[in-house]
Each structure stands twice: as structure tokens, then as C-alpha cells.
Design a protein that fits this description.
Helices cover about 50% and strands about 15% of the residues. It has about 300 residues and is α/β, with parallel strands linked by helices. It has one domain: Phosphatidylinositol Transfer Protein Sec14p. Strands 1-8-7-6-5-4 form a 6-stranded mixed β-sheet. Strands 2-3 form a two-stranded antiparallel sheet. The longest helix is centred in the C-terminal third of the chain and has 25 residues. It is globular, with a radius of gyration of 19 Å. The protein starts with a helix and ends with a helix.
């Protein structure tokens, strides 16, 4: 099977590679195509009232969705903060918003998600323990007014997933809280997430199971109300390029516009850059920032009313 996939992948030309230098001190990418300047020091956002304002139009979207949720007997009530997060994605598409909320509530029920900082911390701890190096970095970069996440998909070993009693929950729940942590306020939701992914060595044998990726997209990736400013995939393998060519026609247009493959860093693999000064230190920094971001989101959500 591996040989067949490799032969097929060779027939799919990879997109031209582009140098993306990375600043190891600021822990931020320097993409001149995006006009990104390195942050002197990575940061996590604190509660800020100026980042929680809504325009009159945005408030109208949210109020319309809130009214529709209250009138739908099959939906549970949700917070005004969560209503706004959906509204900033679906806008006047009330039907789409209700469908999204329904799927999110089904997801939370299936995986026993409680939307608490404590559960998010526990989920991330377990993910870091099971898949060392999968979650590399999270921060907010002032120069782009966006959150950055860096991960290494080659550390997502399917045999480890399959060895767990709750299988896909060990990945689904941490990524749910990762999305929460990168959307702590309304301005973050508007600006979107820059998603960096190390793909060098990604393989059919160790990392890929079609059912898992389909489940992730159908239940979380394509449902959670999150905007991606960029989805940048580094050192993509032939197999990854093949998957991309096969799956691209089915991606939403807004994802296609920001999905890039064939990138490479002049400093090497992303794990070399972001696991600094050690895996243990990087894990500790990542978990601390996740918790701080979830706390900011929780405080903003608790204080907000439409």
C-alpha cells in the first residue's frame, strides 16, 4: 500500500516551496509574503474591554441568532458570548448558525465537554503526555493582531490513538479547547488564527487513518466557529501532497484560500525551532499559555451580555 501511494503521489506535483524564515527568539514566524515582523516576545491576551465591542450590525446578527435559538425546542440555551462567536462566522445565515450550534451541542454531549478551564487544562495535559511534540506553540502576535499556533502532525501516532479507551476523544477534546484558547475575545474571532503545521515525514503507516480525519472535520474542524487567517503546512511529504490534491475539492472556499503546502523553514523543522530550550520547557510554556488564554475567555464570556 505504501508503494502504491508513493507512486501516485509522485504524479502530483507539489506546489513550489517558499522560504519562511522563523524567529527563534520571539518564537514567531517571519513571513514576508504576509508582511509579518517578529514579535520581541510572545504574549497571551488578558481581558480587554476594547476587544469585546460589537458594531451595530454584528449585534443585530447575534440578536437574530439568539432569538432563533430560544425558539428552537431541540437546542439548549447557549451563552451570549457563544452566540456572538457563531454570529461573527455565519452572519445573516440563521439556518447555518442553528445547524452549527446543533452540531456543536452534539459534539459536546458525545465527548462530555463542560467548557471549563479545568477540563481544558486536563485535556491538554493528557494530549501532551500521549503525543509529545504534537502541540508546539501558541501565542498572540501584536504585529498581525492574530493568534499563532504551531503543531507537528507527524507526532500524532494512530497506534497511540487506537490504544486509548476513548480513541478520538484524546485528540478531539484538546483541539476543541485549543480553538477556544485562540478565540478569547471578539477581536480575536474577527482576525482569525494563523495555523502552522510541521508535516515532514507524515506517513500512511504511522499517522494517517481516513476515518479519524473525516470524523475530526465533520464533528469539529468544519463545525467550530473559527476563522483561519492562514493554514501553512511545512516540509510536506509526497503522501501529504497526494492527500491534499484529493481532498482540496471538498474544502470550503474560505479554507482553500488560506491553505498552503510546500513551505519550508530556513532553520529546519518547526519542532527544532519551537521546542526551545527543551521539550519539557516547551510543553510547560504551551500548557501555561493555554490555561491563561482559557481563563481570559472564561472571564470575557462571564461578563458579556447582549
Amino acid at each position: 500500500m505504501d508503494n502504491v501511494n508513493e507512486r501516485a503521489a509522485r504524479e502530483i506535483p507539489a506546489e513550489p516551496q517558499r522560504h519562511i524564515p522563523i524567529d527563534p527568539d520571539g518564537q514567531e514566524p517571519v513571513d514576508h509574503h504576509l508582511h509579518v515582523e517578529p514579535a520581541p516576545q510572545a504574549s497571551v491576551l488578558s481581558p480587554d474591554a476594547s476587544r469585546m465591542t460589537l458594531s451595530d450590525t454584528e449585534r443585530q446578527w447575534a440578536m437574530a441568532i439568539k432569538e432563533a435559538v430560544l425558539q428552537d425546542p431541540e437546542l439548549e440555551p447557549i451563552s451570549d458570548f457563544d452566540i456572538v462567536q457563531v454570529a461573527l462566522m455565519d452572519r445573516v445565515n440563521i439556518e447555518g448558525a442553528l445547524e452549527r450550534i446543533c452540531k456543536l451541542q452534539a459534539f459536546k454531549q458525545e465527548y462530555c465537554v463542560t467548557d471549563t478551564v479545568e477540563q481544558g487544562q486536563q485535556a491538554m495535559q493528557r494530549c501532551v503526555d500521549l503525543f509529545p511534540g504534537l502541540m508546539l506553540h501558541i501565542s498572540y502576535q501584536d504585529s498581525m493582531e492574530s493568534h499563532f499556533f504551531a503543531g507537528d502532525v507527524t507526532k500524532l501516532y494512530k497506534n497511540v490513538v487506537e490504544s486509548q479507551r476513548d480513541t478520538t476523544a484524546v485528540v478531539m477534546v484538546p483541539f476543541y479547547y485549543l480553538f477556544h484558547a485562540t478565540n478569547p475575545d471578539f477581536e480575536s474571532m474577527r482576525q482569525g488564527l494563523v495555523f502552522l503545521c510541521e508535516c515532514g515525514g507524515f506517513s500512511w503507516k504511522d499517522n494517517f487513518k481516513l476515518g479519524y480525519f473525516q470524523k475530526f472535520w465533520l464533528e469539529l474542524g468544519g463545525v467550530y466557529p473559527i476563522k483561519f487567517k492562514k493554514m501553512m503546512h511545512y516540509h510536506t511529504s509526497l503522501f501529504f501532497n497526494l492527500l491534499h490534491s484529493m481532498g482540496r475539492p471538498f474544502l470550503p472556499n474560505d479554507v482553500k484560500e488560506v491553505f498552503e503546502i510546500g513551505l519550508f523553514s530556513v532553520l529546519g523543522r518547526l519542532d527544532i525551532v519551537y521546542l526551545s530550550p527543551s521539550l519539557e520547557a516547551s510543553n510547560a510554556r504551551f500548557k501555561t499559555r493555554i490555561v491563561e488564554s482559557l481563563q481570559t475567555r472564561h472571564q470575557n464570556a462571564s461578563n458579556f451580555r447582549l
